[in-house]
Amino acid sequence: QVHLVESGGGLVQPGGSLRLSCAVSGIFVSANIMHWYRQVPGKERELVATITSIGRTNYVDSVKGRFTISRNNARNTVALQMNSLKSEDTAVYYCHVAGATWGQGTQVTVSS
């Protein structure tokens, strides 16, 4: 059974940075396509970033150049480095892999 635990969220001022981490068990992150999603209350979950098993990455246009997805195969974790944060990045962030149950997510709030 796949288990995903997100951490690293918090309150940050506009222009600041946060690094989210996702601890993964039940699968190897190196062998799967891993994603970061985000969700704002009342809106659908949005795909933010993807990393494939061969390391290719993809981002939603609104975060290109600011966010970086990466993985640590030895620790079996996936990270999302978020720089130059904006108020519109405020959301609950989730890591995900196809077929897995959604985790609790981690709240990111960008506010002065």
Describe the largest sheet.
6 strands, mixed
- The proportion of residues forming helix, as a percent range, comes to under 10%
How large is the radius of gyration?
Answer: 13 Å
Separation of the first and last Cα atoms: 40 Å
- How would you sum up the global shape? globular
Percent in strands? over 45%
- How confident overall, as mean pLDDT? 97
The unreliable regions are none
Number of helices: 0
Which strand order does the major sheet show?
2-10-9-4-5-6
Q: What structural category characterises the helix and strand content?
A: mainly beta
Along the chain, the helix and strand elements come as: EEEEEEEEEE
Describe the structure.
With 112 residues, the chain is mostly beta strands. The protein is built from no helices and ten strands. It has strands at 3-7, 10-12, 18-25, 34-39, 46-51, 57-59, 67-72, 77-82, 91-96, 106-110. The mean pLDDT is 97. 0% of the residues lie in helices and 48% in strands. The radius of gyration is 13 Å and the shape is globular.
